Amino acid sequence: MMKKILFIAFVFIAGYAGAQNITLPKPVKTGGKPLMNVLSDRQTIRTFSTQELSQVQLSNLLWAANGINRTDGKRTAPSASNCQEIDIYVFLKTGVYLYNPVANTLEFIEKGDRRGEVGRQAFIEKAPVVLVFVANWDKMTRYKNRPEDQQFYAGTDVGFVSQNVYLYAASENMSTVVLGMVNRDNLAKLLKLKNGKVMLGQPIGFPEKK
Ligand SMILES: Cc1cc2nc3c(=O)[nH]c(=O)nc-3n(C[C@H](O)[C@H](O)[C@H](O)COP(=O)(O)O)c2cc1C
After folding, report:
1. Which of 53, 129, 170, 197 has its CA 20 to 30 A from that of 59?
2. What number of other Cβ atoms are within 10 A of residue 162's Cβ?
3. Measured between alpha carbons, how far is 195 from 57 in angstroms, rounded to an integer?
4. How far is the C-alpha of 131 from the C-alpha of 161, rounded, in Å?
């Protein structure tokens, strides 16, 4: 009887682990390496050790990527006509979340470890954090009658966000690689996108020691 209760409790806890919003600690907006050192160190690295990011590092990473850096709500990354259409989905071991830069939270989307579903390259699921950048067309309605411009601007805007991640990684001696080869259709279903396009992925963690 006791074993049965423990088993049911385990299934219940395992099923619900991660199935909730996460409040991030305040990002630390000072420090890091000087800009010229960061640019010297910016590179793609495709190995990931088992080291996790701390909650503060995750918060700093997301703020660096596309957080709010001014009182008028503008972001660390520029966007065409200030559309701010690039949403960041965060794949962790516990589940999939949407970064909310206003509340500084991760909004729960899907439970379970789905990192391996982002792309086909084997290193992706080894990274403790895998980001997926989505162009949210609801925020680009001014371009809705100019689809070429919409695609072009979303493509340029996502590049700034990815570069911010590269620069943060270089500053913190982390490893990262931007991914054009992502499972766009499957991810759109997983993320329940109604009016958006999966643009790029970007795993991030710490390099394997040589
Ligand atoms: C738009 C874009 C898509 C990319 N897609 C992939 C990818 O799917 N997989 C991968 O391993 N690297 C990918 N990369 C990383 C490039 O291979 C890498 O940036 C390039 O080799 C230059 O190396 P560096 O970043 O160290 O300067 C991509 C880079 C860019 C800019």
Report:
1. 197
2. 23
3. 30
4. 11
Fill in the DSSP letter of residue 207. P
Pocket test for ligand 1, best of 158, 179, 181 (most atoms within 8 A of CB): 179
Ligand 1 binding pocket includes 31 (Cβ within 6 Å)? no
Q: Whose CA is nearest to atom 17 of ligand 1?
A: 44
**Residue spans per domain, the chain:** 21-205
Q: Does residue 5 surpass a pLDDT of 90? A: no
In terms of phi and psi (left: phi > 0; alpha: psi -120 to 50; beta: otherwise), the region of 142 is alpha
Task: Determine phi and psi for 102, rounding to 5 degrees.
Answer: -75, -50
Average pLDDT over residues 126-153: 97
Domain 21-205: give its CATH code. Answer: 3.40.109.10
pLDDT at 13: 45
29-38 long-range Cβ contacts below 8 angstroms, 24+ apart: 29/63, 29/69, 32/168, 32/171, 32/172, 33/170, 33/171, 38/167, 38/170, 38/171
Averaged pLDDT of the chain? 94
Is 137's pLDDT higher than 80? Answer: yes
- Going from the Cα of 44 to the center of ligand 1, the distance in angstroms, rounded, reads 7
Give 57 Cα–ligand 1 centroid separation in angstroms.
23
Does the beta carbon of 44 sit less than 6 angstroms from any atom of ligand 1? yes
Both tokens assigned to 151 = 């695609």
